[in-house]
Amino acid sequence: MGNCLKSPTADDISLLRGNDSQDGSEASSEPPPPYQESVHVPMYHPAPNISRPASQLTEEEQIRIAKRIGLIQHLPTGIYDGSKKIRECVICMGEFCVGDAVRYLPCMHIYHKECIDDWLMRSFTCPSCMEPVDAALLSTYET
Ligand SMILES: [Zn+2]
Ligand SMILES: [Zn+2]
């Protein structure tokens, strides 16, 4: 009894030493280098019918998508209040309900926010009138 030679402190020191003597343990403990952190969207659509996580996109695709997300975020959003002439979202063919989150396109067409955001990541034109959304946006930036 009381013959406690093996203390936890001694164990810890021997473990630390074991790590120290291994080659290059310092380098491996460094955090990964900062990657491009402009946008945080789980899945991207560089082209129709193509979905890829950000890590598999080329730099060019990442820039293009980042710009597109930036443009989409500049489109005004609102809550459907029942006063608009447009009563149906042509993307999901569903009627707007009062209180739905909607997004307004420059051509004055409105869609469910979720529907049009998904649509615009694939095709940057209004699904009703085929007017290019980015052209209208860019012209509003110019003036
Ligand atoms: Zn919809
Ligand atoms: Zn339109």
Automatic annotation (TrEMBL):
PANTHER family: GEO07743P1. GO terms for biological process: ubiquitin-dependent protein catabolic process. Residues 1-56 are annotated as: Disordered. Pfam families: zf-RING_2. This is RING-type domain-containing protein. One of its GO terms (cellular component) is ubiquitin ligase complex. SUPFAM superfamilies: RING/U-box. Residues 89-129 form the RING-type domain. PROSITE patterns: ZF_RING_2 (PS50089). Keywords: Metal-binding, Zinc, Zinc-finger. Residues 19-28 have a biased composition (Polar residues). GO terms for molecular function: ubiquitin protein ligase activity; zinc ion binding.
